[in-house]
Write a sequence for this structure.
């Protein structure tokens, strides 16, 4: 059957990670009937996997820290391509959002005097990551879910129903957004277990669907991350920015092959771990770029002293931003100085007593023991780059999270949104981003609903069309196998649009993506019906992965410079002219990807004044600096 269950809400939040839950809490607090939809089980999202912590300039461990230092670090990490307003709001509001979590019941690790402890991480000048061992994301999700349950209990006391104002639809995938003219009118999707359809009628949608990593074979991302929110936004008339910037985390597992890509947290380096090549050399000293030279130690002795005396020594180069470390590892392996499994060595065993390693990095200890039969208190780990995070995403208004483009009533927060992190995200800045912008998106989605006179209504024709598209892979016989298509897509993206990019390969990638698009249009689920059918689910995800990959490849070809998570072998330098340009993706009427150049908003003078001119001159044109 093609019956479609119908639900009415004020705000529909797609995604139950940190951004989605925080947005839903805020929408409900504003009195809106709110639905939370999650493709996976409730509680299973990337956010739960986050290990290191949430960055917030609380100044608990080093009192010199404040929002201005955090803002500076974030802009530097993103190589000044960040939306400055987002970076400003994030740095200013993150501490409040972390403290607020405590009022929801979060228990962070403590300093000796009982304050929230903060740990060092790459690119952050001071210890700044609030954390719970290496299981911070779990605490974040646990607390946000707990808050939702408590709100549901309040609603029960008042209305007799737990679901009256906030309801969770888990294992439910949204496949299409619905419009009424240029306004959001709802969302269409299906229950993954029964395959039955659902229609949400709602005037406001918050996208909080996370990332796109599954378009790459070696990735820290799990199966849900097929770029659905990015693609839903595009198809609804919104725009994506800077999709060329992907973060390859320097340390994923490389052995055994079955777990290749699984993350090894940066906390290992934050807590003293060092990278060595096959000659046992701490090679990162050879890879400190000019723009960072002043902040990083030149000798092992100085680097080692920094852990105990950060005021009088400079940081170890292992704690450079991720893009730098990933490229360095890539170069070492290419030069033949890699580990047996094609990575490099990450050594914590010789740096900390075993007992401390187990206490500070319990998940890593467990992960290596279980998956690789390596005891990290005794032996080094083998690690290499893994596709981890997408800096690009839905182009949004920085204050409200409202999507740009031609659509009204669409909001985005968290990894699916773009701008905040510029060309490269600092570790720890995602969990804080989710809280800051999740709250803002929920608040503004609720406020938007209040401005509407008449509720937009989905068009029946559009609902029928969405159902037809969803059923097509089931009715088609003899079509393409979705698993083969995914492998082919991953090969194109990994081989031709990976860490190091070249014009010829990118052109080739676009040609192959075009061919894949035709094949994906002919994908068949290969039997199995609608009841929990993973082949069907993947068949539907593929068209999202494909359009998002096209945006990435197109923008990567267009941007003729190297910056953050985009490295062009044929254009190795950073260009001040390119720093002023955002690449914006949209779909035209035929569904083809269209790319446009837009100026990066110029930083307000008082924010510019937070930097030395000599530093700014490394990034900006004379014209920009002269205008100041
Ligand atoms: P997610 O938490 O990814 O949630 C997305 C949600 O959307 C899920 O519920 C998913 O089911 C749902 N969804 C997706 N598509 C659909 C659809 N079509 N229909 C319905 N639902 C859908 N960042 C840090 O700051 N610090 C860290 O220490 C850290 N460690 C990390 C460790 C790992 C292993 C990984 C993978 C990431 C880490 N990150 C870290 C990054 C950070 O965890 C993520 O960027 C962040 O959690 C993203 O949160 P989100 O709320 O945007 O989305």
């Amino acid at each position: 059957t093609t019956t479609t269950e119908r639900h009415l809400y004020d705000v529909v939040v797609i995604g139950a990670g940190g951004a989605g839950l925080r947005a839903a809490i805020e929408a409900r607090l504003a009195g809106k009937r709110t639905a939370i939809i999650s493709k996976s089980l409730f509680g299973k999202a990337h956010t739960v996997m986050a290990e290191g912590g949430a960055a917030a300039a609380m100044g608990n461990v080093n009192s010199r820290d404040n929002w201005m230092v955090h803002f500076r670090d974030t802009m530097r990490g993103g190589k000044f391509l960040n939306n400055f307003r987002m970076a400003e709001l994030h740095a200013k509001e993150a501490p409040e959002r972390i403290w607020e979590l405590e009022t929801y019941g979060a228990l962070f690790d403590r300093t000796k005097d009982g304050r929230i402890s903060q740990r060092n991480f790459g690119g952050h000048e001071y210890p700044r990551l609030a954390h719970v061992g290496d299981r911070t994301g779990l605490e974040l999700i646990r607390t946000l879910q707990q808050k939702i349950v408590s709100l549901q209990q309040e609603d029960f006391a008042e209305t007799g129903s737990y679901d009256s104002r906030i309801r969770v639809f888990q294992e439910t995938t949204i496949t299409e957004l619905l419009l009424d003219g240029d306004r959001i009118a709802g969302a269409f999707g299906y229950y993954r277990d029964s395959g039955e359809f659902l229609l949400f009628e709602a005037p406001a949608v918050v996208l909080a669907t996370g990332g796109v990593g599954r378009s790459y074979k070696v990735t820290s991302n799990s199966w849900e991350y097929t770029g659905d929110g990015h693609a839903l936004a595009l198809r609804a008339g919104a725009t994506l920015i800077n999709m060329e910037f992907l973060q390859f985390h320097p340390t994923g597992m490389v052995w055994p092959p079955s777990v290749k890509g699984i993350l090894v947290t940066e906390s290992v380096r934050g807590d003293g771990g060092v990278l060595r090549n096959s000659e046992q050399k701490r090679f990162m000293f050879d890879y400190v770029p000019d723009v960072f030279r002043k902040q990083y130690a030149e000798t092992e002795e100085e680097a080692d002293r920094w852990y105990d005396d950060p005021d009088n020594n400079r940081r170890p180069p292992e704690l450079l931003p991720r893009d730098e470390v990933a490229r360095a590892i890539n170069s070492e392996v290419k030069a033949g100085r890699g580990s047996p499994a094609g990575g490099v060595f990450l050594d914590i065993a010789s740096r900390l007593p075993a007992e401390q390693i187990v206490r500070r990095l319990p998940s890593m200890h467990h992960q290596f023991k279980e998956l690789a039969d390596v005891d990290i208190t005794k032996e080094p780990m083998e690690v290499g780059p893994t596709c981890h995070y997408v800096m690009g995403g839905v182009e949004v208004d920085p204050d409200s999270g409202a999507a740009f483009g031609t659509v009204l009533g669409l909001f985005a927060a968290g990894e699916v949104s773009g701008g905040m992190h510029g060309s490269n995200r600092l570790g720890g800045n995602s969990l804080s981003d989710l809280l800051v912008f999740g709250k803002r998106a929920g608040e503004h989605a609720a406020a938007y609903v209040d401005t509407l006179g008449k509720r937009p209504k989905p068009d029946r024709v559009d609902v029928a069309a969405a159902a037809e598209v969803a059923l097509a892979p089931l009715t088609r016989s003899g079509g393409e196998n979705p698993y083969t298509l995914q492998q082919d897509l991953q090969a194109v993206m990994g081989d031709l649009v990976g860490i190091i990019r070249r014009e010829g390969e990118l052109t080739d990638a676009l040609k192959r993506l075009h061919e894949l698009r035709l094949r994906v249009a002919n994908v068949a689920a290969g039997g199995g019906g609608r009841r929990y059918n993973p082949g069907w689910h993947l068949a539907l995800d593929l068209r999202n992965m494909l359009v998002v990959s096209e945006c990435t490849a197109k923008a990567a070809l267009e941007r003729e410079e190297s910056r953050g998570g985009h490295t062009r072998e044929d254009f190795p330098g950073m260009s001040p002219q390119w720093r002023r340009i955002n690449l914006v993706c949209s779909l035209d009427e035929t569904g083809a990807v269209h790319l446009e150049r837009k100026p990066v908003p110029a930083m307000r003078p008082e924010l510019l004044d937070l930097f030395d001119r000599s530093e700014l001159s490394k990034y900006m044109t004379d014209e920009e600096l002269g205008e100041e």
Remarks:
- The chain has 20 helices and 22 strands.
- The mean pLDDT is 95.
- The two ends are 64 Å apart (CA to CA).
